[in-house]
Design a protein that fits this description.
Elements lengths: L1 H26 L1 E6 L4 E6 L4 E6 L9 H34 L5
């Protein structure tokens, strides 16, 4: 029974840490850029697009496909930053508790 109480306390501690980490990550902003910074995307930790900045020099009516590719590349870069930080934060919470099977 003593081990069960200890496990329950660890689970409660982990839940509290996860909620706090989620709130912090959701408030942060991440920037992805492509084309040497010609296209920049900012997204938050909720994976919501906050802003897009496009340098007018990259806008070519004859090559819209390149601009589309740059937007996708910048978005992917920002998304990977969110994903990487999220995995890092939640991995450290999980590893710090030493719960078996996690």
């Amino acid at each position: 029974m003593k081990n069960m109480n200890k496990l329950l306390k660890q689970a409660q501690k982990m839940q509290s840490q996860v909620l706090k980490a989620q709130e912090e990550l959701q408030r942060k902003e991440y920037e992805g850029a492509a084309g040497g910074g010609m296209v920049k995307i900012v997204m938050n930790g909720k994976n919501e697009l906050v802003s897009i900045k496009i340098n007018p020099e990259v806008v070519d009516p004859e090559d819209v496909e390149m601009l589309e590719d740059l937007i996708v590349a910048a978005y992917t870069t920002a998304f990977e930053q969110v994903k990487s930080e999220s995995e890092s934060v939640f991995g450290s919470i999980q590893g710090g508790l030493g719960l078996p099977g996690m």
